[in-house]
Amino acid sequence: MDDTRTARILVIGRSPSVILDAADILRGRGFRADATNQFDQVLTDYDVTTLDIVVFGGMVPPQTKQHLREAISERNDRVTFVQGLAGIAGLIAAQVEGVTSAGAGDDSASYDPATRTLQLVLRAPARVVVDAWWATSFTPPEPASTSMRVVDALLDAGEHAVAVPGEVPTVASFVTVAVGPAVHAFTVGAIPPSVTRLAPATLPAVEAVATHRG
């Protein structure tokens, strides 16, 4: 997908603050984005034939996610589905940018978990921005997180190694790398199984949100 900044995006998740903030960030970057936590009303509240990207949060029940994927795909075979890595608005926005920038440039980025190091290969000088993101609380109904800027610099062509700072924890942590227009997202530390196994039905109720500003 070309990064024309005209993609229409729907963020489907549970946490009102996370999905609303993610949609706001995306709109601030020129995308047309909405957010909803009304899983049962997605197909009636939105014209899914116009969507380019659908993002699912981790608290969307698997059966609901599968149903929506199938139903949306039947009506719109060009839609791209993105599984959010965590309930962190900036990270979700970066993942969307990664999808829209797919194929941009000839540079490459990879992550080595053994050494906690990003490996970059730049074909030409480029501005590189590396951000780290991690969860600071999993307490429902609203998770909390923080982030830090690791690199923001113009790097020369060639190979570069960027170490993930020691402050970044080994659980529920991620890095994003923007190389020019291309964005990549990597998991540094996985979300604990105790969190991923939480049943949505056992969590506290949240405010219903469904925006129509995209």
Largest sheet: 4 strands, parallel
Strand order of the largest sheet: 2-1-3-4
The gyration radius over C-alpha positions equals 17 Å
The helix tally amounts to 5
CATH second-level architecture: 3-Layer(aba) Sandwich
Q: Compute the separation of the termini in Å.
A: 18 Å
Low-confidence segments, given as residue ranges, are none
Helix content range of the residues, please?
10-25%
Rounded mean pLDDT score: 92
Question: CATH class, anyone?
Answer: Alpha Beta
User: What is the number of strand segments?
Assistant: 11
| Class of secondary structure makeup | alpha/beta
Overall outline: globular
Quaternary arrangement of the chains shown? single chain
What is the fold named in CATH at topology level? Rossmann fold
Domain count: the total is 1
Report the β-strand fraction as a percent range.
25-35%
- What is the fourth-level CATH superfamily? Response regulator
List SSEs in N-to-C order: EHEHEHEHEEEEEEEH
